[in-house]
Amino acid sequence: MFKTNMLVVTLFVLVCVVSGEVNRTVSGSRMAWMKGLLDHHDWMQILDGNHTVPRECEADLRQYITALNDGSLWASKIYDASGQYSPNILFGNEYWLGSLNACRDLQLKQYYAQTPPFPTTFYVAKINLTVDGDHIPMTRPMLVGQCVPASCNKDAVKILLDAAETIVSSRAAVAGIDASFSTLYVRPVPGSYNVLNDPKLHILGTAMLIVAIWMLAASVYEGYLERRYQYKEQKDLEVANNNHKPTPNSQQTTENSDEDIRDREIRREPCGMWSEILLSFSVLSNGRAILGTQRPSDGALTCLHGMRFMSVLWVIMVHTYLTIFYIADNKTMRVVTERNFFYQSVGNASYCVDTFFFISGLLVTVLFLRSEEKKANRKNAKKPERVDKEINKNVNGYTNSALSVSVIGQESFYEDLLDKPIAKGYSKQEIVRMIRSFFVMLSYRVVRLTPAYAFVIGLNELVLRYTHDHTVFEPAIFDHITCDKYWWRNVLYINNLFPQKDMCMVWSWYMANDTQFYVVGIILLLISVKHMKFAMVTLILVMVSSWATTIYVSVWHQYKARIQEPFEMFDPLYDKPWSRIGPYLVGMIVGWYLYKMRCQVRIPYWVVAIGWPTSLVIISSLIFGMVDGYFEVWPTAFYVSVGHTAWAVALAWIAIACCCGYGGLVNSALSYRGLLPLSRLTYCAYLVHPTIMMYTSFLLDGPLHLQNSMVLTIYAGYAVMAFLASFAISLAFEAPAVRLIKIFNGGNKSQKSNK
């Protein structure tokens, strides 16, 4: 008997020792402590103690916790919909969000037999979490979702979380863990914002309704005119067949193939000015103009279409990565991704915008020189040529010749000027004429671009305000505030001159820069009409001063370029015109050269053999040259200054080679007909794609798991959505604006004369 008792005592002691070791191990586990955070089972202890939770909220919470301990399904669903410990906490997870949708769904009595006896609501709390010096040494902000009875307001939830903070802090102290968390604030999701009561929605909706009705009426009217025109043509054809002689239309087609192309595009008889104003919003003609794949018959710069389209795709890819990085539950995967050699194409993607600047400078120069030569020819000939009648038709980029050099006369504009004595200075009349030309060209650009731009600004503000009110995340962009205060800066195209935190639509810095470069460009072009050498010297001085200023600012800030922080110097350097104008000026030089040479340059084959590899080496080194992930101060200074111009120099070779017949497969790919309509949509796609990204991403009720394959799949979807939205915006705003400008600029005179 004694031996038996001794055995029982020994076993009891061993069990106690083992149990004590287990408890000590568990109590000292950092992961076990984190898993016990924000446990609703502890809330009964809080309610039994001293608190100031409202009475109705306390009653509902007691009923919920009692049901949770009893294993009721509806209570388990509330617990499951609330944020708990989630994996990847040591791999960058900052979201314990639970599920907003689950918190809503569990109340639906028509679908579930067991539902809560009270309505529920959802809150998101922001807490700061710290766990010793190894696990989470730096205070990490966490977003935690809480599904609770609707009788509990945000203050009641804050009281519960503050009390829970005391409980878990005491547990950490008993276990010898240096860990804590604190609740910063609690907010309801969704908030109190009602988009239907927003006056700006009423304004934007009214404008959209008016435009939609206008588009419908114009499309119906144009459809009627086209049907009548086709019926008339059919009757004329029948009469011609009966008389066995060609019609005047067929003779005109035989004599002039270009006229035949224009007739096929018109598909109706010309109308008066008021009818043309109505028809400027027609979906039929505008849609055909945007989606047309007819290659230009009068030029060779179709490679610019491909450059523009590929650059926009590049921009969308970069913004997709940045968006997914922000809402990922494994943020450390970003660090892993950034170690990849090919990720430099994302971190060093600022050059894609330089492509836009290069193309803009090139086209502005070519189109200006074309128009000036046609003015000289018209003055000399004392009569307008056919090509003069629609001189501004294709400047907008909706038809192919907007990006091509037209067939021009044998004598250049400069040769015409040299035949006449030119005074060294400017007369008063010449100065007035230059100023008038400057404001006419600037007004044309502003009127052409601003309607679509203003619409996207208004749309973006509403979307971001709704998103901030309904998201469980914390978007880092506050356009619902900045666009409300500072939209006028965007409309004036000066938003890049202000701090990033005060910018509406941060990505619209490109629009401001491009417009400011346009101002500089047309001033230089107007000067070049009379003083070509002075204009060229000024251009070079502006470029060199841009390099010097950028180098000075970079060195002054001791800036070291890093893959991880591509926008670290956004305010001092990234979006400033004095650091980004280089590609635009290179584009102007290339545009002048192609115009002067008529795209008929004989390039020696040894130059071609050197030019292509050199261009590719420059492009590759600028994108993938940061092999260590960063540059020191002085290499960074040259990288951010001369690098942008070097990128444009590489593009200059591609443009010249493709234009002059040395592009080969590259020119065939960039000039592919299928890219023409997509190229015309790049402007609106650039404007609207971040809005689409933020709306679709931040309205998720939980984070995404970052993986390259998933990012690329989402990127493809964003690209498609961006171009579909761009097509709608172009139909409603951009294309009509261009046609109205043409009408008020006298573009319908030729149509009237043909009646």
What is the subunit arrangement here? single chain
Q: What is the straight-line distance between the termini? A: 126 Å
Strand content: 5-15%
Structural class call reads mainly alpha
**Which term fits the overall shape?**
globular
Mean pLDDT: 84
Number of helices, where a helix is a run of at least 4 consecutive DSSP H or I residues: 31
Radius of gyration: 34 Å
Poorly predicted spans:
1-26, 246-264, 384-421, 750-755
In helices, the fraction of residues equals 55-70%
Largest sheet: 4 strands, mixed
- How many DSSP E strands? 4
Strand order of the largest sheet: 1-3-2-4
Pfam families: Acyl_transf_3, NRF
Region (Disordered): 239-262
Domain Nose resistant-to-fluoxetine protein N-terminal: 54-184
Organism: Bicyclus anynana
Describe, in short, the structure shown.
65% of the residues lie in helices and 5% in strands. It has 755 residues and is mainly α. The N terminus and C terminus are likely disordered.
In words, what does this structure look like?
The longest helix is centred in the first third of the chain and has 45 residues, at 199-243. Residues 1-26, 246-264, 384-421 and 750-755 have low confidence and may be disordered. Helix 4 packs across helix 5, helix 13 runs antiparallel to helix 16 and helix 16 packs across helix 26. The chain is mainly alpha-helical and 755 residues long. It has a four-stranded mixed beta sheet with strand order 1-3-2-4. Strand 2 and strand 3 form a beta hairpin. It has helices at 2-27, 30-35, 43-48, 55-70, 73-81, 100-105, 154-175, 199-243, 248-255, 257-266, 273-279, 283-291, 303-327, 332-338, 344-347, 351-381, 413-418, 428-470, 479-491, 509-528, 532-556, 570-574, 577-580, 582-597, 605-624, 633-659, 664-670, 675-680, 682-698, 708-744, 749-753; strands at 95-96, 120-131, 136-149, 179-188. It is built from 31 helices and four strands. It holds the Pfam family Acyl_transf_3. Residues 54-184 form the Nose resistant-to-fluoxetine protein N-terminal domain. Residues 240-255 have a biased composition (Polar residues).
